[in-house]
Amino acid sequence: MPLAADRRVKIIERVAEGVSLHVGEMAREFGCSEMTIRRDIRRLERDGFVRRTYGGATAHLTRSLDVAFNARALANAPAKRLIGLTAARMVRDARVVFVGIGTTAEQFARFLPPRDDLTVVSGSVPISSMLGTRSSRVVILGGTVRRDELSCVGPIARATLERYRFDLAVLGTSGLTARWGLTDINDDEAEIHRLAVERSERLMVICDGSKIGLVSPAVVAPAARIHTLVTDASAPVDELTHLAALGIEIVLAMPGGRPHGESQAEATEE
Q1: What is the C-alpha to C-alpha distance for residues 186 and 216, in angstroms, rounded to an integer?
Q2: Which tens digit of pLDDT belongs to each residue from 88-118?
């Protein structure tokens, strides 16, 4: 029987192709129970990838959405949920917050408590859409939208950013090391995040352990600029030691602090 993440990627791929999928058929194909498939679909629906219909699932997002983006969201998904939940609880009294792009940032936004006095600025279309239904004020940067991440880049996005100062910037990352700091794969996205860091009082980085010790081409900020790093126990200890020596607060997201209504088994499920 395929792993849960593999099953869910295949479900997303079928949905993106416009295929209506039925629980019984999928259970037979994957060699698992119908209850397992229903649990997969509930998870994908909760994470915004599909919507359920009687007996199956149909596409929730347009077919033009890159399936690779959805697949990345399932990589290390339990760790990303715990990291997002932990980081969201640390926002405290910040009133103007910049939220970056990526799947871990989306989990942070999902668990961010709504507040009437909170303004969230983001270049992420999925995050802005999600938070736009809540009581907090939400500002999307605008500009050119990159298909891979559904992120806003370019001169219009920069001009919007320059209108704000932030109490806190919350960023995911492609790579983080003590030597090279926060790095990204794409120059355009790195430029937006670089400007957000410059205009922020505090910087919180959220990423699972697989990103720590990696280096990407575009430098966003030196490691010493980071105030808080929220990651998980899989992060390499040597690199965490180097980062802590720079004065960074290291927070490990551990199972147990789960969102309301999610069982412990679901919070840690692979």
Answers
A1: 9
A2: 999 988 999 999 999 899 989 988 888 899 9
- Give me the residues paired with residue 52 across strands: 57
Angle among Cα 223, 229, 233 to the nearest 5 degrees reads 120
Closest to 58 (Cα-Cα) out of 47, 43, 45: 45
What are the tens digits of pLDDT across the range 17-42?
666 678 888 888 889 998 998 888 88
Residue 152 lies in a domain: yes
Task: Name the domain count of the chain.
Answer: 2
For the entire predicted model, the pTM comes to 0.71
Q: Which domain holds residue 17?
A: 4-63
Angle at 14 between CA 27 and CA 54, to 5 degrees: 60
Q: Are residues 247 and 214 in the same domain?
A: yes
56 with 182, same domain? Answer: no
Q: Three-class SS of residue 152?
A: strand
